[in-house]
Amino acid sequence: xxxxxxxxxxxxxxxxxxxxxxxxxxxxxxxxxxxxxxxxxxxxxxxxxxxxxxxxxxxxxxxxxxxxxxxxxxxxxxxxxxxxxxxxxxxxxxxxxxxxxxxxxxxxxxxxxxxxxxxxxxxx
Amino acid sequence: xxxxxxxxxxxxxxxxxxxxxxxxxxxxxxxxxxxxxxxxxxxxxxxxxxxxxxxxxxxxxxxxxxxxxxxxxxxxxxxxxxxxxxxxxxxxxxxxxxxxxxxxxxxxxxxxxxxxxxxxxxxxxxxxxxxxxxxxxxxxxxxxxxxxxxxxxxxxxxxxxxxxxxxxxxxxxxxxxxxxxxxxxxxxxxxxxxxxxxxxxxxxxxxxxxxxxxxxxxxxxxxxxxxxxxxxxxxxxxxxxxxxxxxxxxxxxxxxxxxxxxxxxxxxxxxxxxxxxxxxxxxxxxxxxxxxxxxxxxxxxxxxxxxxxxxxxxxxxxxxxxxxxxxxxxxxxxxxxxxxxxxxxxxxxxxxxxxxxxxxxxxxxxxxxxxxxxxxxxxxxxxxxxxxxxxxxxxxxxxxxxxxxxxxxxxxxxxxxxxxxxxxxxxxxxxxxxxxxxxxxxxxxxxxxxxxxxxxxxxxxxxxxxxxxxxxxxxxxxxxxxxxxxxxxxxxxxxxxx
Lengths: 124, 498
Hints:
Helix content of chain A: over 70%
Mean pLDDT of chain A: 87
Distance between the termini of chain B: 24 Å
Oligomer: heterodimer
Structural class of chain B: mainly alpha
Shape of chain B: globular
Order of helices and strands of chain B: HHEEHHHHHHHHHHHHHHHHHH
Strand content of chain B: under 5%
Number of helices of chain B: 20
Shape of chain A: elongated
Number of helices of chain A: 5
Number of strands of chain B: 2
Number of strands of chain A: 0
Largest sheet of chain B: 2 strands, antiparallel
Radius of gyration of chain A: 20 Å
Low-confidence stretches of chain B: none
Low-confidence stretches of chain A: none
Distance between the termini of chain A: 56 Å
Strand order of the largest sheet of chain B: 1-2
């Protein structure tokens, strides 16, 4: 059991990170912490995805010394996907932070439960 | 290869470039560009539908310079073309009917930004319908999430802010699950394009390898897309978001954006995993029970709403339940009925949101039922449209809703024992519940208004808005009367899907 976990170290770590992120996202009431949890969750998936393409002892797939042999490099597709994913994560983090600023300006708190209570009292 | 073969690609490209163009225009020109683009996409989708129904099989279209296992591609079949036609028609009609009072919600400086988001949402919907690549699905789902966030937030008050915060948290959680599922699938198979994925998975299933990881992948992706499409029990974000958004945004969000997630789910089941494996693992039954629970709970909550827009929003949850019940049956007949319900509900729900807004508008922007008394007389076209859409929701003959319920019942009759009884009882009870709240609303908009309420001066609704509402109602009628060809396309499309 432990050996198996150690053999798949990246996957194990990313599952633990996913759990941490998810717990923060669901249980924290502070909006900034929720956003941090979301980012941890996404980063764990990127680690998971990047580790799929990594082959021990090989190099990043950039041809420098004229070596064109496929055996010399790692699988570039997951790396490319992770880059795309990071761009997505950056953009929605920005949106969530902008939203948080709006909410704070309006309600002067970052506690999501308090904000919901305050909003309920308003006229639709 | 004729020019029509390129139309799906053109329509995606047109939406994206229109988004860039509208950012540089003033508000009036931006609106015209959006009208034009949605109309052009509708026309091109009709041509594509015409082409694909004449072809025996679907065709794929290479994107970029690399052929299939390496490069990206889109796939065009009759089911995709039908969905694209239906969704772009709904978007076109909603934009016509809803844009004229957008100044109440969107300031002039922000109108072109609003138009960009509509273009972007349409582009994302089209990509999700046509794409053949799972990672493209993820990227465009995120784009759609961001676009729909902006579509709601354009109306700036506390309610939309809170609703959209919940929306974003739930949706980003859903995207996380989806991404994890896609990465696991890539880890197992080494592919992201749907055809090679399907072949590899078929091989694994035959050898009996990786069964547990595949089950986890299916669960992750189903949960991710279920959260995003407001499947019960993940529907918590939906009512507030739909109720407080501007009318065009609610029509688009519940009419087409929510449906495209379900379309992707069907695509994933049929084209990636293979429905036989999912049935053999007893996974469709979860969808079946979630669907039935959604039908009941959504309707019961809708009955207790005091605000007409929240009632319409809760009825969405119930209607999504019908779709999931159909998919959950796992049989071809069930999924066909579910796809038909997707089309019907997308027209009906957008019509309901738009006509509700008109009715509320002539009642002095008050949404409680007793202020709405007599609204059907103050705005006759909107009243008729609302009544007709309500009849379809209840499932009166000559409307699309009737055919949906009929097809679902027929699909349910193919089972024996508990399943058959459950389908029929669920349909009967939910029809009754729908009748309670929709007919109650219809009666209340035609009741005599109380004498002590002063209504604002009537602002004349432009003729083209009435025409757009009328065309939507006509579509519902047509789907109810000549459903046969549409069902044929769905049936053939699902066969070529696998």
